[in-house]
Structures are given as C-alpha cells and as structure tokens.
Design a protein that fits this description.
The protein is 54% helix and 14% strand. The protein has helices spanning 16-29, 39-46, 48-89, 92-106, 123-126, 141-157, 177-185, 221-271, 289-336, 342-378, 386-400, 424-441, 499-509, and strands at residues 109-113, 119-122, 189-194, 200-207, 213-219, 382-385, 407-411, 419-422, 447-455, 458-464, 513-518, 526-533. Helix 3 packs antiparallel against helix 8 (221-271), helix 9 (289-336) packs antiparallel against helix 10 and helix 10 packs parallel to helix 13. One of its GO terms (cellular component) is membrane.
C-alpha cells in the first residue's frame, strides 16, 4: 500500500505550559481584590464616580459656606471696631443717630450694654429692624425639608454645628458669652449661632470705656440661600450624571455583559458534551473585541467538533484494524490444540507470529500518530537544508542496499538554496516515508528520484518512482489513515497504513502541502510533492 513505517523521534518535556500557567497566574493576581466581581458589578462600580462627584461637591459647598461665614465675621469685626471708635469720639446725643445709620447701612443690629449688663441702647429702638428671626412652626413645608437636608448633609460631612440662639434668655450682656469675654479680655470677640430657622447669626463684641460693651449682630440668611441654591444645582447635575451613567451601564450590560453571558452559556454546554446541539453565536455584525471573541469561540468549537469526529473515526478504524489480526491469532491458537500435523502446526504458529508482529506495528504507529499533534505543537522550528537531507538519505539507502536492484538519485539546482523552517527529525520522517513508499512500489531495477525545486518563496522536494502509479480517483484516499493499496507481491500486513497520513499531518503542521500526481510525460509511476515555505 502507499504507506510506510513512520519513524518515532524522541520527545522532550514541555516547559512552555508551566510558563504560560505562571503568566496566567500573574495576570490574575492583578485583579486580586475584585476577581469575584461580575462584569456588571464592575461597570456599576465605575459609575460610582457620579456619586463620588456629588459627595465631593457637598464637601466643597460646606467649606465654601464656612469661608463665607468667616469672611462675614471679619467684616462685622471691622465694622464693630469702626462703630466703637465713632462712639468714643462722638458726643452722647450723636450715638443714637450713629448706630441707627450704621445698623441700617450694614443691615445689622447694634446694641450697647452698660457696666451692669443692662441694655442701654439698641439700634432697633431708634430705627426699623434690619432682619427678622423666622418661626419654623409657621414656615412652608419646603423650608422645613430644606432644614432637614441641611442637618443631614452636615452630619454626613462631619460639619460642626454652632449652638442655637436661646430666645428665652433676657437681652442682657450676661446672655452673650462673646460680650462677657470682650469685657474680660478687652479684645474684640466673635461668635456664631443658629437662629431658630437654622440660619446663621454672626456676632461681634467690642469693649467700650467705662465697662460698657458694644455688640453687632446679623442674620446671614443670604449665605444659607446661596448654599442651598448651589446645592440644588449640584443635585440637578448629579441626577443628570447619574441618569447618564445608568443609561451607559444599561448600554454596556446589553452590548457586553449579555453577549458574554451567551458565549459563556454556549461554552458551558459544549463543555458538558452537548456540542452537537449548541450553536455558538458569531455576532457577525460586530467588529469589536467581543465579535472577535465570538467568532474565535465558534471556530474553536467547530475545530473541536472536527477533532472529536476525527478521534472517533480514528478509534473506530483502530478497532477495525486490530480486530482482523486478533481474529486471525485467535483462530490459529484455537486450531493448535486439534492439529497433530507438525508441519501444519508450524504454519499456524507462523501465522500467529506474523499477526502479533502486525499488531505490534499497528500499536506503535497508532501511538506515534496520537502523539503527533502534541509533539508538533511543541516543536522548535529551525532552519533545515532539504538538499542536504535528501543527499544524506540517498547515501544511507544506497549504502545499506536497496531491494530488487532499485536505485536512488538526487537532482537539484546548485545555484538555489533549499532552507526551510522546521523540525528536522519530523521532516526527515516524511522523507523516509516517501522514499520507502517509492522503493516498495518500484519494479525490479527501477529508479527512485529525489529532486529539489525553488519556486519563489516555496521549496519543493519531489519523490518520483517508476511503479504502477496512483489509481484514478485515489489521489486523496491514499492519505487517509489505514488506507490499503499494496504493491503487487507484497505480503499482507507489512504496513500499518498510517505512513502517508502522518507525513501529510507533519507537512501541514509546517504550513506546507503534501500532494501526489502522475508521472510526467505520460510515464509510469507517481510523484509525491512536499511543498514548504522557504527561508
């Protein structure tokens, strides 16, 4: 048959797999804190930016309010000092007019307390009040809600709340700690309180001559309103950003998470052995990474199915090929007990021995064929000189002598280079198989020719013989496993039928082609052509 005994080169331990595994572990360690998160959770986590931005805005608004209040206290302190200086310089009749005008201009309340702490003069007694303290019980529900929001935000950001104004205390100097401190220290003192409606009240106290104290106060409702307005704008922006984030999350979940979940489900069903009933989506219209992943998984599944089919077919062929010699051995062994003729017993033993040898050959070739893909995937591609290899094999075969007077020759173009990338031992196995096939089909005194050609970026090694040629329509069948096409006169079972199948697998693993055609010029024989990319 058009087959020969494949050689079995030694294998080397694979060191690439542990390195790949180590690389995978290293990549996975970068996600150590979030490796258990789903993709949807990670997308939502990214969208927490909107919430963090809102929280940061709230913190900024609180600091902005504190700066405004501090600035307002500085202005009141300066105003209190100027008013106190004016009171020292003016005569008593002018004091009432001074505090009335100053209070109206600065929209503050100015009071003077006597040495005993009693209120001696009040700008609201000589001019209309400049501000009014609102009663929370009579206010609209929206203001009540605004105060609740103020309290909640102050609590969240950890802002310090000043004490509330106690309206039940008498209007005396002793009711105001800053006035007492100003009298005791002789220095200007400031204070901040909350009005009943939670608007800030700013106070400054300045000591006067004769044990008197001047206080100036104001209700900073405008600051509270500004902060609330800015907070409303910030909240509106937050709602917009949050809505946009949720829409983006939904979009990403629909376009990323759901397709990945479909692919994962399909892969799971394939893993469970349901590949026949699973259609892996290809997402043909997608041109992004998920589309590439889907098509890769689909192609991988198709390749897996093809590999499973090939394995099942190979297993069936192996069982069939082993069944015949085993049946022959069983028949011979069963007959030995009833045969008394020594000559016939010797023939039966010879048949059993030949069948055992055939089984051993089959098992060895099957083992080599089953390891072929794994070994080729680990093979190191190095420059191989096909011309030198062909010459070496020609000398080897001629040196050990060829049967039936068959000769072998090598033809090559001296000016061409015939270097190809590959595994030298495996390519040598192909060349030996082709030579053995050519020799086995050559007639007595026939000639086997190895010729080398260079066609652009391709190197061809052609093995020609003068045998009967390839039966019409069998050009591809001879490369199938266990295909049987024996030369005339050859004993049955001397070849396993795997040689050419293994040879083609090796050549294709080297990104080449192995084909066969009839002899040129209408002559007898066959031409096996191994085409490989050139270096």
């Amino acid at each position: 048959m058009r087959s020969s005994e494949p050689s079995r080169p030694s294998t080397e331990p694979d060191t690439a797999l542990p390195k790949a595994a180590a690389a995978t572990d290293a990549d996975d360690s970068q996600l150590r804190w979030s490796r258990s998160w789903s993709l949807t959770t990670r997308i939502l986590a990214v969208n927490l930016f909107a919430i963090l931005m809102f929280a940061g805005g709230l913190v900024y608004l609180e600091s902005f309010r504190d700066r405004l209040l501090a600035q307002r206290l500085e202005e009141m302190r300066a105003g209190a000092v100027l008013i106190a200086a004016g009171i020292r310089d003016d005569a008593a009749p002018e004091v009432r007019r001074l505090i009335a005008v100053a209070g109206a201009e600065t929209r503050t309340r100015i009071r003077i307390y006597g040495p005993g702490g009693e209120k001696r003069l009040d700008s609201w007694d000589v001019a209309p009040p400049t501000y009014a303290l609102a009663d929370p019980a009579t206010e609209d529900w929206r203001l009540t809600a605004a105060r609740s929001i103020d309290r909640s935000i102050d609590f969240l950001v950890g802002a310090e709340s000043p004490p509330y104004l106690d309206t039940s205390l008498p209007d005396r100097r002793q009711s105001y700690a800053e006035a007492e401190a100003a009298l005791a220290t002789g220095q200007v003192q400031d204070a901040l309180r909350f009005a009943p409606d939670r608007t800030p009240l700013t106070y400054s106290a300045v000591p006067l001559e004769g044990g008197e104290v001047l206080t100036i106060s104001a209700n900073a409702q405008d600051i509270t309103q500004v902060v609330r307005d800015e907070r409303a704008v910030l909240f509106a922006i937050f709602l917009g950003v949050l809505g946009l984030s949720l829409m983006l999350t939904s979009f990403l979940a629909r376009t990323i998470v759901r397709p990945l979940r479909r692919l994962a489900l399909a892969a799971q069903r394939v893993r469970l052995g349901r590949s026949r009933e699973v259609t892996v989506p290809r997402f043909k219209k997608r041109r992004d990474e998920i589309g590439e992943l889907a098509r890769s998984l689909s192609d991988m599944t198709a390749a897996l199915r093809s590999r499973i089919d090939a394995t099942e077919t190979f297993a069936a062929d192996v069982a069939h090929e082993l069944k015949n010699p085993l049946a022959s051995v069983k028949s011979a062994v069963d007959s030995l007990g009833s045969v008394r003729d020594e000559k016939l017993r010797a023939q039966l033993l010879e048949v059993a021995r030949a069948d055992v040898q055939r089984i051993d050959r089959l098992i060895s070739d099957i083992s080599d064929a089953s390891r072929l893909d794994a070994e080729l995937s680990r093979a190191r591609m190095e420059p191989v000189d096909l011309a030198a290899m062909a010459t070496a094999f020609s000398e080897l075969y001629q040196g050990r002598g060829l049967p039936r007077g068959v000769s072998i020759a090598v033809e090559r173009a001296e000016q061409s280079a015939f270097l190809v990338p590959g595994d030298e031992s495996r390519l040598g196995q192909v060349v030996r198989n082709l030579i053995d096939n050519a020799v086995s089909f050559s007639p007595d005194g026939g000639r086997v020719e190895l010729s080398l050609e260079r066609h652009g970026d391709e190197v061809r090694l052609i093995v020609s013989d003068e045998g009967p040629g390839i039966p019409e329509g069998a050009e591809e069948k001879i490369f199938r496993r266990f295909y049987s096409e024996r030369p005339e006169g050859e004993g049955f079972g001397q070849h396993s039928g795997l040689g050419l199948a293994i040879s083609r697998a090796i050549v294709e693993a080297h990104e080449g082609r192995l084909t066969v055609e009839a002899a040129r010029d209408g002559g007898r024989g066959a031409r096996f052509i191994m085409s490989l990319p050139a270096i």
